[in-house]
Design goal:
three-stranded mixed beta sheet
């Protein structure tokens, strides 16, 4: 099956001025224009090219680090790191920045999504006329719904009319805009498109990575779930544009929770070529990319720079490169041996990669989310906790170096480790403790150790699951300064279990053997199956499935679902949406605990100011500046709380 590596990205002209400024990369042969030639979609090749571009547009959202930051920083999963700039401090809402229409990096979503929506409009309007099969047109329907779903969760109600009518292909820029309400976006765009897509998409992908019935069912279930929460509104969070929280079709929150459950279970029972991997490690391991658990991804390749969408040797930090994995990666190359040798080099391997230290995990990630580190493989399968000597990649041929406690360490043996056992026994001040990073020693160990209770903004376990993987490193460092050439995983089969479980917790009637606890335990049993240990750097064969399922509470509540979602998808960009959907953001993230810089072992509590209006992101300032409307109209267009 042929994989998707798009050479083009079609930028449909949209109603709003900002849509015309969506960024293009050097792989695209495009000329800016004030209007779009509608005849492009009057040919079969044009329609097919438009569909191909929709896969390419994912790269401008996923792997784009500033958008990635907006999905995580300020939640219980991440705060700003030692080298953070204003983009990350603004998002944290902890008093070190200010989230505004100018500083919020959800702007990356706004421009990219609307550009793609208009392309989808063109494909949908013209597909049948030029003889394209509805199964291909339904790929465009899926992506239109996909983008609108991201937008409505992020900004509230957004425009369905881009200048030529609701859900119509627009060919002439318009400098005005009207936002639809949240119920209108769901019931006019998202639900109908996904229902049609489920009916017409194939069970097996048209090309490797192509959308299918299963991914469409996942997104329909997610959309039903999010809309049910919106109707329920447990904490009276305001919506915008203002409207009654009633459904135009007369259904209530309970009906939509039931639909979310039913659709997710249908997908589980009719998986097509998809399913769960044997172990959690296998889901995210570079050699196993594009496995059967991944339903949708923004693709990249090391084989060809043109098709990768970015340099294979150096990344500048901009889309369409995949550089999200740099953000929560500390500068491990600072580590020195006891004899002051640089022994851990930056290399293009999954445990290492390029360290930007823009984001950092609070201590609660290790004390609460990943409390079980012995039975549950998801801690080991999420983080790099052991950094090993790799000096040969820099041309050094030392047999060993002297490290902690005066002991010798050979190549690929641990130099620096994060530990969760015997943390009270770590000696941070003794004669054997001369780590330049403030780490300490434990008796009989040659590696510097830092307890997880001393994790700070500078030194913390790296995010292994998003690390780079390449097969062209040879015996050297490879290309660690390039954007990752791995696909960025967007949707996973495993999420179907947690969507169904969440709906069940909220009152959906369940099928036999598929209660919330049953569904959660499918993933918890898998989490207890170890096939590889990152910390031990070797294959293992351990099964703690019984221990994991026995530890699951008899009664599952929404907080437990949210905890499981973080264990399963930590650091992948789900968290802000999860906490906003369930209106648990304040409860989970109003405060956090973390240490500071090198050698700071004193945890400090930081408070965040998360107000009700923060549950929507601001309409980007660039959008407002581009519209020819009065200041009063622009003010009314903006979400409350972000107005001048």
């Amino acid at each position: 099956m042929k994989p998707i590596f798009s050479k083009i990205r079609v930028l449909g002209t949209a109603a709003l001025a900002l849509f015309l400024t969506a960024s293009c990369s050097d792989i695209l042969d495009e000329q800016p224009r004030s209007s779009y030639d509608p005849t492009f979609f009057k040919t079969e090749n044009g329609v097919e090219g438009g569909v191909t571009s929709m896969y390419a547009h994912l790269r401008y959202i996923y792997g784009q680090a500033y958008y990635y930051n907006s999905c995580l920083t300020g939640t219980d999963e991440a705060t700003w790191g030692w080298s953070a700039d204003g983009n990350f401090k603004d998002a944290d809402l902890s008093g070190v920045g200010n989230l505004t229409a100018t500083t919020c990096r959800s702007d990356a979503l706004w421009g990219t999504a609307f550009s793609n929506i208009n392309t989808a409009n063109g494909v949908i309007e013209n597909g049948a006329e030029v003889g394209v099969n509805e199964s291909l047109v339904s790929e465009a329907r899926f992506f239109r719904a996909f983008d609108y779903f991201l937008l409505v969760q992020t900004f509230g109600g957004v425009p369905l009319d881009l200048g030529s009518g609701e859900l119509k292909f627009n060919i002439t820029p318009s400098r005005t805009s009207v936002r639809n309400t949240v119920p209108e976006v769901y019931t006019k765009a998202i639900f109908p498109d996904l229902l049609t897509a489920i009916e017409n998409l194939p069970a097996n992908p048209r090309v490797t990575g192509g959308v299918t019935k299963t991914v469409a069912r996942l997104y329909l279930a997610k959309a039903y779930l999010a809309y049910a929460w919106w109707l329920k509104n447990p904490n009276n969070i305001p919506t915008y544009p203002e409207c009654q929280r009633t459904d135009p079709d007369g259904h209530d929150a309970a009906w939509y929770f039931q639909q979310a459950y039913d659709v997710a279970v249908t997908a589980i029972e009719n998986p097509g070529p998809f399913g769960l991997q044997e172990s959690f490690w296998m889901v995210n391991a570079g050699p196993n990319d594009r496995n059967m658990e991944i339903l949708l991804y923004a693709d990249h390749t090391q084989e060809d720079e043109y098709y990768n969408g970015g340099s294979l040797s150096y990344g500048g930090g901009g889309a369409p490169d995949n550089f999200a994995g740099w953000m929560m990666n500390w500068n491990y190359t600072d580590a020195r041996s006891a004899d002051n040798q640089a022994v851990i080099n930056r290399i293009a391997e999954q445990c290492y990669g390029r360290p930007w230290t823009r984001m950092a995990p609070p201590l609660g990630v290790f004390t609460k989310t990943f409390a079980d580190k012995v039975n549950d493989s998801r801690y080991d399968g999420t983080f790099t906790t052991v950094y090993r000597g790799n000096w040969s990649t820099a041309g050094q041929n030392w047999e060993s170096v002297t490290n902690a406690n005066g002991m010798k360490v050979k190549e690929r043996e641990p130099i620096f480790s994060f530990v969760f056992q015997d943390m009270d026994k770590i000696d941070y001040a003794g004669e054997g403790s001369k780590s330049n990073l403030g780490a300490g020693t434990l008796p009989g160990r040659a590696d510097w150790v830092l307890g997880l209770d001393a994790v700070g903004r500078y030194v913390y376990p790296g995010l292994w699951k998003l690390g780079p993987y390449r097969t062209d490193n040879g015996s050297g460092a490879g290309q660690p300064n390039a954007g990752s050439t791995r696909p960025y995983n967007i949707a996973k089969f495993s999420e179907l279990y947690l969507v169904a479980a969440e709906a069940a917790v909220e009152g959906a009637a369940t099928q036999a053997g598929k209660s919330a606890r049953d569904l959660v335990n499918v993933l918890r049993a898998r989490a207890g199956r170890w096939t590889y240990s990152n910390a031990e750097y070797k294959e293992v064969d351990r099964d703690f499935s019984a221990e994991m399922t026995a530890a699951t509470p008899a009664t599952i509540d929404i907080n437990y679902i949210l905890d499981e979602r973080s264990r399963e998808f930590y650091g992948e960009g789900y968290r802000w949406f999860d906490l906003v959907r369930t209106q648990k953001w304040n409860e989970y993230a109003d405060s956090y605990v973390i240490c500071g810089g090198k050698g700071d072992h004193n945890p400090q509590t930081y408070s965040r100011t998360i107000e009700a209006f923060h549950y929507l992101r601001p309409i980007p300032q660039g959008q407002l500046d581009g519209m020819e409307m009065t200041e009063e109209e622009k003010d009314a267009y903006q979400n409350p709380g972000y107005r001048d």
